[in-house]
Amino acid sequence: MSPWSRAGWLATPGAVLIAFAVVQAVTGAFLMLYYVPSPDHAYDSVRFIISSPAGGWLVHGVHHYGASFVVVLTALHLLVSAASGAFKRADRRAWLTGVVLLLIVLGLALTGYLLPWDQRAYWATVVTINLSQLAPGAGRLAAAALRGGETIGALTLTRWYALHVIFLPAALVAMVIAHTILARRRAATVEEPPVPFYPEQAARTAVIGLLAGAFLLALARHGAPPLGPPADSSDTSYVPRPEWYFLGLFQLLKYFPGRYEVLGAIVIPALAVLALAALPWIDRRPERDLRRRPLVAAGLAAVLLAVSALTVLGWRDRPPAAPAAESWTVRAIGGRVFVERHTCARCHVETGVADPLEALRLSRGPEWTAAHTSDPEMIAPGLREPPAPVNEREIAAMVAYMRRLSGEPYPGFPLRTETAAAVFSRYCIGCHTLDGDGGKDGPDLSRIGRKHDAAALSRRIADPESVDPKAEMPSFGSRLSADELAAIAAYLAARR
Question: Which string of DSSP letters, residue by residue, matches 172-188?
Fold first, then answer.
């Protein structure tokens, strides 16, 4: 019999939380059968799991959305305990273990985020490690421990994997046991008649658990968020977004830029956790009715309002999804032209010696892909028709195209756009920037159409000295065909 059952429906989150933690452990164990914690294979292993006809996609979906349920149930359990004053009937250490449980659950959610090793996971981890460096005193040590090396790579992935499947789960089990023992130790001495857990409270818990489980299965059947492109450390234009339960912190950081970032990243969250942990010492009066505890009621309302507002603002502030065509960079579009020009399809076809490029899901880094592109015989020795030498800029464009192709099909562009993209990727990108991609020696051409029309741009490209005798830019009149010159001039003129 448990005196905690007196709370009725409000006592169900704790028991349901245990059930969902078991679900996470079971689904996680099945995922471990196929997951490979290495940068070369992590992405492909997750892709295999979610594309498996044997139900891997469902297990992955349950595990993915189950993390959100566990976070919500843990927070709800603490909220109910605080609002009902239940912590006053138990050992104060029970409340402290509950706060630690919340931190462990958030740690599990955070460490699991990296494991798919796609762009979203990689760059979110970069942000997390960078923020950890802001911690006064031990920041650099914490970042080094999380990173495992000079850069984020194999050691980072294996460390986060070990935290996710060994250390944090072990800590979670220990804290659950300690929390349960401490919660019952003092509660058993309270001079109130205990209420039997069976059958009423057991029935309430079962109803809530079944409803939550059905909702979780419905979400999982809908499918977990798809994998993004494979992790690419060279793509610094990617803007990561955290899971919804970290959006409040993500939004808070926006209000503390520059040197004040430590306030939003470390100081305010740490003070909030300390205030939460100190609640039994702050609220020491025997009253448990929330209406007779105005200070606690106001504090809980303020915290709920702040967290909800920051989360909603963070959700609304997400960038709109770009149409497929708009999300392709000029370098990647130009890479399509070079792939066709260098006849990669001689091998990469349905009946060829390699998979079609459209079917490839690259899991290796851009360096490996570039090396293979420049020398396919490195991977496939003895090719009957070794390809012609490829320019370094063309290789970079081809790599960008193939890695972008791993995320979604090529949307198709007008021939003139592809021609202009190939010209820019081959001749211009070393000195000029377009949408954040390119060199810094020359001016940024992202909005060049606001200053010059196509005719003026054509003259500047063909013979720069005819426009400006002091121009340092080389002449491209003899290097480009008339169609190429017209295409690149029109393309840049449209950049407004």
Answer: HHHHHHHHHHHHHHHHT
Has this prediction a pTM greater than 0.70?
Answer: no
Could you tell me if residue 465 is inside a domain? Answer: no
Neighbours of 338 (CB within 10 A): 23
Contact yes or no for 380/347 (Cβ under 8 A) = yes
Is residue 182 located within the same domain as residue 266? yes
Q: Are 334 and 426 in contact, with CB atoms under 8 Å apart?
A: yes
pLDDT tens digit sequence for 190-229: 555 556 667 777 888 899 889 999 999 999 887 677 777 7
**Residue 182 included in any domain:** yes
Q: Looking up tokens 């820019």, which residue turns up?
A: 424
Is 347 part of any domain? yes
Q: Examine the pLDDT at 5 and tell me if it is beyond 50.
A: no
Residue 322 region, left (φ>0) first, then alpha (ψ -120 to 50), else beta? beta
CB-CB contact of 312 with 306 (8 Å): no
280 and 328 belong to one structural domain: no
Domain tally, the chain: 2
Under DSSP, is residue 325 helix (H, G, I), strand (E, B) or coil?
Answer: coil
Residue 295 inside a domain? The answer is no
Residues 6+ apart with CB under 8 A from 473: 431, 442, 460, 464
Element at 437 (helix H, strand E): strand 437-438
Query: What contacts 450, CB < 8 A, 6 or more positions away?
Result: 496
Question: Is residue 334 located within the same domain as residue 275?
Answer: no
- Final residue of a structural domain among 363, 397, 412: 412
DSSP 90: S
Q: Count the neighbouring beta carbons within 10 Å of the beta carbon of residue 3.
A: 19
Domain containing 336 equals 324-412
Q: What is the pLDDT of residues 137-180, one digit of tens each?
A: 888 999 999 998 888 999 999 999 999 999 999 999 999 999 98
Is residue 336 predicted with pLDDT exceeding 90? no
Task: Give me the pLDDT at residue 323, please.
Answer: 53
Q: Are residues 191 and 52 in the same domain?
A: yes
Q: Which two tokens stand for residue 299?
A: 């504090």
CA-closest candidate to residue 429, choices 396, 403, 462 = 396
* pLDDT tens by residue, 259-283: 889 999 999 999 999 999 999 888 8
342-to-88, 346, 398, 411 alpha-carbon distances in Å: 74, 9, 10, 21
